[in-house]
Design brief:
4-stranded mixed sheet, Metallo-dep_hydrolases (chains A, B), Urease, subunit C, domain 1, 9-stranded parallel sheet, hydrolase (chains A, B), alpha/beta, homodimer, TIM Barrel, guanine deaminase activity (chains A, B)
């Protein structure tokens, strides 16, 4: 199986950048990281050259060496804690719609077509390639209600070597599930969700690369019985859960109408055993104080999706307040409510959203570059249950990494407009911290020249010389 | 002189997209545009093939033909109504600063180094290449206080064939002009501004490509005498004027302190004859009703710079209100307060900013894709005095255009992650309007494969086969 094929013991040499805490970025300009045949980091050295590495680690003299050239650095792979793979072809199509009208206009018609594997296959193939090309090494995917297409998405992730949580979407209610795209019965919904969980366990029993995730679309699309049954299903399989919460004011009103006995949107999930330490709640924009506290008490996690929240005019999630109270937060691209498969773009959007909140609430709520990068890596790792395994460069963690190459400005300035190095202009005088900032604010997939998951090279561009 | 070299009479064949009004985008899928040796559009035909063009315009049978291939369309060149060329190397560097601290930390030190032409040359060369590569055919540039470097920027624009307004920055006051970077005296300031105006007139007497622009940095950097003298200078040369207004609350307070007799920030400029029909006011975020009316009465124009306003947490300009009262508005990248030289990115940012305003003020204030594109082309043309000349495709207008190539998704979906077509995924079923939306929300410079100004090809990538 490709995903578990052994990889050559490798020493990665050059500049390493990663987050060591929410506010601190560590930059090691002359670093060396030894990654073994299982993709596990065996040593991390700072301020060394190869001779010193070999002296200190004599059993690594025969190891492969991958050394950075030019203005490059290694950065942990990005973690996308919320996205919808079947909505990929609708990227950029939302017009002036908001959540509920957007679902009916764009999303449900597209998702319903995934009854055909022929339709699903190129879209899932392309989307996994897209997210990998942006440095996303772990991704929490919503699929559709269809078991075969959901299983295909898991197959593709496993084959490409991208860590993934793959969820068959469950939606059985008449309120926000259209006639042409709805689980036929509660029984069939549960059977289908279970079938997809079983399939994903069968292809990756340890869940090293792909894992199933129980996926009630959101409360308005599921009956209370269905939500409860999914809570039980997740419990019996010790599985992750993902759903949406408190994205849009109209949606919140709808939940009140549909679940009149529940005190809040959060209570609906809490009462159906869907709020666990393995639950990923996307959006979480308009939560009241009690809801926030319930989520914290249950240990559920939040996926912040600012690009989507802006594009659909959903609102600005109060991330600083959540961080201050100790909630666990990662970033999600939420394609195609979000308009980009890139977590780097999502970092920028998280920063912009925090600035919009700052305009009325003071500078303290602004997210820094470092904080956004933390949410994109360490924060995301906590959200998807991979804390201590990915998201940073430490002994015992696995080598999920991207090689970022910034290139440099041509001698005398580019005269013809052919910017072979990509979108970032590095002049030579910039500190490493400046370079990281330039990457965050003007970089894109052209700067992501190679990507590894568990030590396996899963993406590279022509610029990568491994 | 390169800029006025004649170009071959050419028929451009394929899909044309342009704005015909603030809310209407016209898409002609089988169009033909005839551009003569002077770069002027002589005919615009819809629903035709080449044979029909030759039949109707028999004197164009020998003309060169540039035909679109694949998922491509012609779009008017973008107009950047406000940017700072010397700040290009600081792109992405702002941290958590706001306007006044950002000026002192990043901007003034960099700009002051442009006393050296050796420093200025590669930066200006590179930046003009960057803006052209993003499809910017006209740009209103701030330079620095230095005459030789300012003139060099004008030389580069003329040589590359990019329409430009180039302004020597004037700043003589002790308040917001540091000791190391300030016009020495009022007299030297005026003499230097005049010297640069005269130089720019000498290299392009008709102002077909480059024109000078009187550029008081902003009220806090100039004495009242200086502002008045610059108002007179602009009047005597019938010149354009550019400056900043009402960007940041601290700045507005500072203007109140420095100009206690003036009723408002706008009044400071009005009282010094700087508010004219040829004045470009950047930002204009926090104007009160009377200021808005004064600006309208004087016919002054507004450059909306949302990327910068978000990055520096300046605020969200009320663009819908300005449009409703009939103010003239274009978009500005405001590098390096803004983090991108791309007007396409600025379109997105204008849309996001309008959504943040919508969150508190209702959906009516949202800008549509069409409206953002209008501001980027026709709106910008009005701001820089080129209405009726550029910004759309009409007989008598000049051929300032970009060829946008979207490419298409590989058969079966991209399997290796090598996205040769660039960032936009076109599947084949999309309407032209969908394709334009995909370009606006996920496109970048990779999609801009050729750029013309007055019929002259001023930028191309390897993908262009002209």
């Amino acid at each position: 199986m490709a995903a578990s094929a052994s990889i050559p013991k490798t020493v990665y040499l050059g500049t390493f950048v990663h987050c060591v805490s929410l506010s601190d970025l560590e930059i090691s300009e002359k670093g060396a990281i030894g990654v073994d045949e299982n993709g596990v980091i065996q040593f991390v050295e700072k301020n060394v050259d190869l001779a010193q590495v070999h002296e200190k680690h004599s059993d690594w003299k025969e190891a492969k060496v991958t050394e950075l050239k030019g203005n490059s650095f290694f950065f942990p792979g990005f973690i996308d804690t919320h996205t919808h793979a079947p909505q990929h072809p609708n990227t950029g199509l939302f017009g002036k719609t908001t959540l509920l009208s957007w679902l009916e206009t764009y999303t449900f018609p597209t998702e319903s077509s995934f009854s055909s594997l022929e339709k699903a296959s190129p879209i899932y193939t392309n989307f996994v390639s897209r997210t990998l090309s942006h440095g996303t090494t772990t991704c929490a995917y919503y699929a559709t209600i269809h078991v075969p297409a959901t299983n295909l998405l898991a197959d593709i992730c496993l084959s490409r070597g991208q860590r993934a949580l793959v969820g068959r979407v469950c939606m059985n209610s008449h309120s926000m599930s259209p006639d042409y795209y709805r689980d036929a019965t509660l029984e069939s919904a549960l059977a289908d969700s279970k079938a997809s969980i079983d399939y994903i366990h069968s292809i990756d029993p340890q869940g090293d690369i792909v894992r199933p995730i129980v996926t009630p679309r959101f409360a308005p699309s599921c009956t209370a019985e269905c939500l409860s049954a999914l809570g039980d299903l997740a419990k019996s399989h010790d599985a992750f859960i993902q759903t949406h919460i408190s994205e849009n004011l109209g949606e919140i009103e709808l939940v009140k109408e549909l679940f009149p006995k529940s005190e809040s949107y959060t209570a609906v999930y809490d009462e159906t055993n869907l709020l666990t330490e393995k639950t990923i709640l996307a959006h979480a924009i308009h939560l009241d104080q009690k809801e926030r506290e319930t989520i914290k008490a249950r240990g559920a996690k939040i996926s912040h999706c600012p690009a989507s929240n802006t594009a659909l005019t959903s609102g600005c999630a109060p991330i600083r307040e959540y961080l201050d109270m100790g909630l666990t937060i990662g970033l999600g691209t939420d394609v195609s409510g979000g308009f980009s498969p890139s977590i780097l773009e999502e970092c920028r959007q998280a920063i912009w959203t925090s600035r919009f909140r700052a305009m009325g609430n003071g500078d303290d709520v602004k997210l820094s570059t470092q904080e956004a990068l933390y949410l994109a890596t360490r924060g995301g790792a906590k959200v998807v249950g991979l804390e201590g395994k990915v998201g940073g460069f430490e002994v015992g963690m696995e080598w999920d990494a991207q090689m970022i190459c910034l290139g440099e400005v041509a001698e005398g300035g580019e005269k013809e407009g052919v910017f072979e190095s990509g979108p970032v202009d590095v002049w030579g005088w910039e500190s490493m911290e400046d370079r990281v900032n330039k990457w965050v604010y003007s970089g894109d997939d052209r700067n992501c020249v190679a990507v590894w998951v568990r030590g396996r090279l899963v993406h590279k561009t022509a610029k990568f010389q491994g």
